[in-house]
Specification:
2 copies of one chain form a homodimer. By secondary structure, chain A is α+β, with helices and mostly antiparallel strands. Chain A has helices at residues 3-16, 64-80, 101-118, 169-186, 198-205, 211-219, 234-245, 260-268, 273-280, 295-298, and strands spanning 26-28, 35-37, 43-52, 85-95, 121-129, 135-144, 160-164, 226-229, 247-252, 286-290, 304-312, 317-320, 327-328. The first copy, chain A, contains 10 helices and 13 strands. The two termini of chain A are 36 Å apart. The interface between A and B is large, with 70 and 70 residues.
Chain lengths: 335, 335
């Protein structure tokens, strides 16, 4: 169905019908000038991220539902990286002529699935025409107990540096999708060779913000001294903590967790998997520091690996290979 | 200066240096994964709006500083329309190659001027490349005492319908700018004929959210029963209140406030000024309803005009001319 048949108001009505509110703190969701959130003794956390067609995603291989899911997740991940929980979000869409009502519903299905899994209310938004591509803006509001908010600035020398999950997969997933896109462009009858690489593809197309890690750390009564989510890559995000905490960091190359499919694809492409982990980004894992005294509480937590320790600033931010000379960490963007 | 010379991080650093925080509730502004806002006994109000090049603005005549100002104002206006005050905002920018560092600084100067005048902290954001035009996403967080939040749904039959300021000017300003753009395109040596029309041009390019009206209503101890800001036009926005309150409305055509410059330009263009007021939109005035018993408290408030009254739903939403038959209000978008 053409969006013009429904009009902006008709489209919003149609979408809004399917949108529940689940948090008692959401006093008013979609349908007024602003969402209304109940007073609370919690700190509020506010973050925003915009995904632009051609820059952040390619509709040749990114399904709209996954894209909606990802747009929500990158925001939730920012809230978790403050040690909080997302509760409300608002969405702005810019939609060009080539999208139908069904396309927008697909996108919303992804946004709503993300909300459902992470206990978030889609509480408002703004939908308008776009002359060019698709634009998705999401802002999330979260909450955290006042004493538990974790900044990038609290790391201290001797702290342990920890990472959840594994790194590099999202970037290798992107490289694989780009390779298969080129094959398809050269020969539209070719079948994409993606079997066995579901983990890295999903990591890129439909990442999961690491709510479980935050719950696990809370159960273990561990509050990190500093935390950031891996959106730009381990090197760049580690340097954010170093800079804002006024410290250095020594990371051990052989401790960096890399998934088997990521390693396999890197080998197949003659690409260095460690480079994907350091500079690939978009893994949405959590990088955090804890006092050395809490080592016992994290060493057996499933999804957490200790990969290095915080040092004085003058000792530098280094990646230390098992054999060979240490290398300075350098910030590098995704593209 | 080319943005690539600075890179995303360099650009953000350069912009962030000029950004103060002024509200004690802003515990952390720019520089972490999310902004942090202190706990409070106030309700929080969250809204978002996205401005897209070619749809919401034309850089041929919209200066970047005005555009930044407007992007903030449309969000602040939504917060005032809930009877609250904006306190924090976050900004997402998509910037194409043709913009320099200085362009982005101009845009930020407008965003920051809006923040300064309305007591808001620019508390975070996200800047990325765009393949196409300029995209500006703003989300604002505001606050309001729990008992004072005003929804669209509270209007009751016999309530008076009030409007702040005057309507139609933004749309006549847009028509004038479009006319002069066409003249300029036909003859690049032509001088735009804008003198005497500063009010309508400013209304369109650099609107002001009506904070003063909210302050005035509070001083007069008036809490509206329903409120909305005029973004789509009086007809459309009145119908929002009617629909959500389950009521009708009778508006008196000769009571609708229209500024002299708007009238003059309408006459010059043989356009109906009332149509601009009803369907033009983007005036960012406040449309609200109050119990009849409070008439005495609002009748002498400078910026407020009583333009009609709320009736039972079955009596319809009508515009009543001084002579002649009533006309049904119809929702019409801006473009």
């Amino acid at each position: 169905m053409n969006i013009n048949e429904l009009g902006e108001f008709g489209l919003i009505d149609r979408l809004a019908k399917k949108i529940p509110t689940r948090n008692p703190s959401t006093l008013k969701g979609i349908g007024d000038d602003a969402a209304v959130v109940a007073p609370s003794e919690m700190c509020r956390l506010l973050t925003t991220d915009m995904l632009l067609e051609g820059i952040h995603f390619d509709l040749t291989y990114a399904p709209l539902k996954h894209l909606g899911y990802k747009a929500a997740m990158v925001n939730f991940s920012d809230i978790y990286a403050m040690n909080g929980f997302p509760k409300q979000m608002v969405v702005s869409l810019g939609i060009s002529q080539r999208f139908s009502v069904e396309h927008v519903e697909e996108l919303y299905a992804g946004l709503l699935l993300a909300c459902e899994r992470h206990g978030v209310d889609l509480a408002g938004g703004d939908t308008s025409a776009s002359l060019t591509g698709l634009t998705i803006g999401v802002s999330a509001l979260g909450e955290c107990e006042p004493g538990r908010v974790v900044y990038r600035s609290g790391a201290k020398p001797t702290d342990l540096i920890c990472i959840t999950g594994s790194l590099g997969s999202a970037y290798m997933g992107l490289l694989l999708l780009e390779r298969e896109k080129k094959v398809f462009e050269a020969n539209p009858n070719a079948t994409p060779q993606l079997a066995g690489y579901e983990q890295i593809i999903e990591r890129y197309l439909k990442p999961e913000a690491n709510r479980d890690a935050i719950l696990t750390l809370r159960e273990a009564d561990v509050t990190p001294t500093a935390m950031v989510d891996i959106s730009d890559g381990l090197a760049s995000d580690m340097l954010q903590i170093c800079r804002q905490s006024g410290v250095g960091a020594h990371l051990y190359l052989d401790k960096i967790p890399i998934a088997k499919q990521c390693m396999d694809m890197a080998e197949e492409m003659s690409f260095d998997a460690v480079t994907a982990a350091l500079n690939g980004g978009e893994d949405y894992e959590l990088l955090f520091t804890i006092p050395l005294s809490l080592h016992g509480r994290v060493k057996d937590l499933g999804p957490v690996a200790v990969i290095g320790h915080v040092v004085e600033a003058e000792k530098g931010a280094l990646l230390i290979p098992p054999n060979g000379a240490p290398v300075r960490l350098q910030a590098q963007g995704f593209r």
